Amino acid sequence: MTPQRRAIVDCLAATRVHPTADEVFADVNSRFPMTSRATVYNTLNLLLDAHLVNIVEEAGLKRFDPNIEPHHHFICSICGMVEDIESPEKDQLTLLNVGNHVVESMQITVRGKCAACINRGIRADG
Amino acid sequence: MTPQRRAIVDCLAATRVHPTADEVFADVNSRFPMTSRATVYNTLNLLLDAHLVNIVEEAGLKRFDPNIEPHHHFICSICGMVEDIESPEKDQLTLLNVGNHVVESMQITVRGKCAACINRGIRADG
DNA sequence: ATCCAATTTTAGATGTATTCTAAAGGCATG
DNA sequence: CATGCCTTTAGAATACATCTAAAATTGGAT
User: Fold this and answer.
1) For residue B85, which residues of chain A lie inside 8 Å, CB to CB?
2) Domain residues of chain B, as ranges?
3) pLDDT (tens digit, 0 to 9) for every residue of chain B, 126 residues total?
4) Which CATH number is associated with domain B3-65?
């Protein structure tokens, strides 16, 4: 565990915005200015392999999620914001059977417009 | 509607494997050898804008899905295969409320090991 | 059939995200 | 202090996607 790795883990643990690798790089670099992108990518991939973070893909970007409990996501179609859903309804979902495949997990992705974007739109119109 | 565009649309309509842009390019090129990647990307993006195809992102690749009915996906964690789920259970899902956001759609992603990969594994072991 | 304007296609350059590589650095152990 | 192992660094290399400008094609008017 090096200072760079600790900074990367801290960055993920402190945020709820599902940062991209580049956003993690920018945050870590503000504290350790010489950290290279390769270190950020290496560390993130190590965390992925160790199942200590998850990945959410959207609009061509891989976003990293330190929440490894099974959960779901809301994605704003305007600003791209990704938010964890901690709804009791998530548990109503039992594993579907799919053909002859072995099902291991299920995840719901909810899409729509986030409250912030709706407010921005209302102000712009009025 | 040009021959190139028709070939791209035909390719998508004929397949159930959710091809990537590059796979579409390879297929179209086998019939129209001089078709460029740009034409494939342009046409796919036109189809996306017109909501005539959907996109499924997985493992850093954008896969194109001509099925525009709301539906769900099974993704194999070994080979990356994406399969549509046409399960009656999909309809039991009612739109969740998520904070103050406006929910427009919900999609389930089921992950696991596909039948083909399981068979391959069993043969490899025995 | 010919011309023209508008659109599409092409090849290659460019952009963006990610991974690879080789050299340098750090740290524990002998 | 030397050694070996692992990490970090900077930049090159790769992969996927988009952009650009010129050439080709289309459909409509003559």
Assistant:
1) 96, 98
2) 3-65, 72-125
3) 789 999 999 999 999 999 999 999 999 998 888 899 999 999 999 999 999 999 999 999 999 999 998 899 999 999 999 999 876 555 556 677 788 899 998 899 999 999 999 998 877 654
4) 1.10.10.10
Q: How many CB atoms lie within 10 A of CB A90?
A: 15
How far is Cα B7 from Cα B32, in angstroms, rounded to an integer? 8
- Taking CB atoms and an 8 Å limit, are B112 and A101 in contact across chains? yes
Q: Which of B87, B103, B109 sits opposite A107 (nearest CB)?
A: B109
Q: Which CATH class is domain B72-125?
A: alpha beta
* Contact call for B98 and A85, based on CB within 8 A: yes
Q: Is the pTM of this model over 0.70?
A: yes
